[in-house]
Write a structure and sequence with these properties.
Length: about 140
Amino acid sequence: MQKLVRHLQQKKEAALARHGLKLWEYEILWRLRSAGEPYRMAPTRLAQGLGVHPATLTNRLDRLQLAGLITREHAPEDRRSLLVGLTPQGAATWAAVIDDQREAEATLLAPLAEKELGHLAALLRVVALAVEEDGPPLMPHVD
């Protein structure tokens, strides 16, 4: 199992490098994307979800905004609040990395027949639910 995880991690790192992203940049884009349309959230919620200190996040958001991957806007319902959002370029960059990851996973699983893929998905679902019982969800919670 560890060798498969390492293999997929290497593919992910290669995809990130191809698209000029660091892992922390991808994680921020992924977290915003997982929030659902319009792909925005408050910086405090983003920092909590990523498990980083707000000051660290501010520095990272500065870099992503300078790269044109995110925006920071005042919340329409409360101008004192700020929202971080994906730009079209940020969404496209995230999608390109995800496409590369899907391709790597498809290549890895290509030897399996459709029925075997169904069995694998069901078994992995059982494992994922068991892991979530003992800790945080594997996927971000969308409000």
